[in-house]
Amino acid sequence: MTKIGLVGPSSQQRSIPFDAQRTINLFPVLDEKGREVSALYGTPGLSLFATAGIGPIRGAFAAANGRAFVVSNSGLYEVLSNGTTTLQGTLSTPSGIVSIDENGLQLGICDGNSIYIFTYTTNVFVQVTDPDLPSVGTITFIDGYFAANVNNSGKFFISALYDGTSWAALDFATAESSPDNLLRVYNSVGQLWLLGSKTTEIWSNNGAASFPFARISGAKMETGILAPHTAIAVDNSLFWVGQDNIGSGIVFRTQGFTPLRISTNPIELLIQKAPTPSTLRAYTYQEEGHPFYVITGGGMNTTLVYDISTQQWHERAYLNSFGVYEPHLGSCGMYAFNQQLVGSRLNGKIYKMSLDLYSDDGDEISSERVYTHLSQEDTRIKFNQLEIAMETGVGNQVAPAVNPQITLWISSDGGKTYSNSYTTSFGAVGKYMTRAVFRRLGIRFICTFKIRITDPVKRVLIGSYLK
Fold first, then answer.
1. What is the CATH number of domain 45-363?
2. Is the pTM of this model over 0.85?
3. Which pLDDT tens digit goes with each residue over 241-255?
4. CATH number of 2-43+368-466
5. Element (H, E) at 106
């Protein structure tokens, strides 16, 4: 038997006959000492943890004091460890992404225009109506101060020390090295990052009495941010979807003050095709040592996920009732009560997300891998047998006596069209010697395999072998 490439990232090119590879609801895992050096694991499933209002969930935040909050529609809800929620305040807007941060005493929320403050000790929620504070886009916290960027300008304001309800008319500064507007303020690695539409500046606290922040000499990047809510700090770096004077849609992470491109051409193609790329958003989480950076929204058809540990991209998607992929249900996330929680992009549901769950709150998860093309110049290839090495005998979690199925399609035209499906079992519970084998697959000049699993089972794909 001949080993062929099964494991890989999503890397479908503009020309599908050039490269049609997709990895949906699966992610590559590396282990040089394993049976193979790499495998594909199924992505996490969802189960309902709580419901907060009618939704959608616009933002989520786990506070350092152990409390957890979401903004659902126009409501700020506290999420409790027993899965109940309490309405703690009402915003003046029912939609749009919010940014959230805290100063240890207060929670600060910005809805793209106004700031709202929730005080932990009193549970008092107020909208900041200080006439000295203009319309602001995002909020962050650094060194005792909330900071917020002024819409349609290069300015940013800071609050009074540890008091997000007080903003003075003269407590502002301007990112002056370039004339572009500020779109995002963000505290990363203890420094204040001012991300504009075309450039980025990094400021630090110098302790000056007049204004405590100043730009770090030489700390300027000729790269701005495309979508303000994709800026996320993780793994001692800042990640974001960027843009500059010559284009947009590249995903960056920082190394010191240098932006490093981490996206690939196929990933950038998907971002650039998004109908409303400025409304992309991101969140991050970690499971089993894999830190993930998740980009969703913007009108994309799927959610794009970067595994920081393997530096590989994959897609996540929700399979709707028409059998069509949509973005993953999760729009934002937080780690609270020793579990990963994500808020729904559709309604007020808050889900627990885990690799030990095998459905999207009862709905099928469709895990799909489109292989790289197989060809041998102008020679027809006879495919007698395809065996997919995988963890078998895992059974069906809903009906253990049922054999879970893996389905195969074959394309002879470079991924443009596919054959009728072939289906085989990979074993009911305890049937560990089951082999997932497809036979008599025909003769072709070029062959592209596509496989899919929808049963609610553990999914581990280790390798593929042709005979």
1. 2.130.10.10
2. yes
3. 999 989 999 999 999
4. 2.60.120.260
5. strand 106-110
